[in-house]
Amino acid sequence: MAVIALNIHGSRTDALSEARVLADWLADAGHELREVPSLFSEEGERLLASSAEHDQLVNGLDLMVSLGGDGSMLRSVNLVADAGVPVLGVNFGNMAYLAEIEADGLQSAVARCLNGSHTIEERMRVAAQVVRMDGSVEELGSALNEVVVENLESGRTVRLELTIDDDRFTTYNADGVIVASPTGSTAYSLSARGPIVAPTHEAIIVTSVSPHMLFDRSLVLSPHSRVQLLVRPDRQASVVLDGRQLAALEPGDQVVCTRSPHPGRFVAFGPRDFLGVLKDKFGLADPDSDD
Description:
It contains 6 helices and 19 strands. By secondary structure, it is α+β, with helices and mostly antiparallel strands. A 6-stranded antiparallel beta sheet has the order 8-7-18-15-10-11, with no helix packed on it. A 6-stranded antiparallel beta sheet has the order 14-13-12-9-16-17, with no helix packed on it. The protein has a 5-stranded parallel beta sheet with strand order 2-1-3-4-5, with helices on both faces.
């Protein structure tokens, strides 16, 4: 029998309803079910109380099912990726870049996972740590989409010195700097005019946000690059992983980003049509159509 966790978007009544039906079906078949506790409040603070609670969730877990939108998928993947657990994304949201199936295919998709009729698509994540001015180090974890170092005070820029593999590149005067994975290239980085990169590619993408300088181009770097962002005087900053503000930064502190050793593992039922998804989400008409 399998051990399956459900991460349900609590404010979507359709997701809750479908989750109950799925839970009854799995329980009747003798599978063990675990429900993901709320990970974050509306303010973004951590609500997962302890590592023991996390270990209890992922220990022996075979599959995570995410019922919601892309935000639910981000939380699901980042919660279980370090343990190597695959995630099945079920779309109960809007954009749904990350979901594999629509809601009406939920039960049959889980059945296919249980009988092995699926593949696993691995996607690179970005790991981040804060190195304080006094030399102390804080591990922040990994992000599926992006790590953002941004201004702490609205309406003010922040100065961030970018170093790549111990080679100083430039100092940005900007609202912030995004360090994204290929999956994250269609998220915040895209809105900052960053490049679109196929999600199964491996690279680190550096994009500035509203830079007050002539250089405003993104950098697509090797996945093995070590990216450092040093906060220059005299502004504070903050570091955000996949929408979660995790630390405040003082001048002299730096954020170090590298490739995470633990990729996100996505359940797939065939080749993912990345370009087709882009065309659909951006309303790109087929040139051979009559539209």
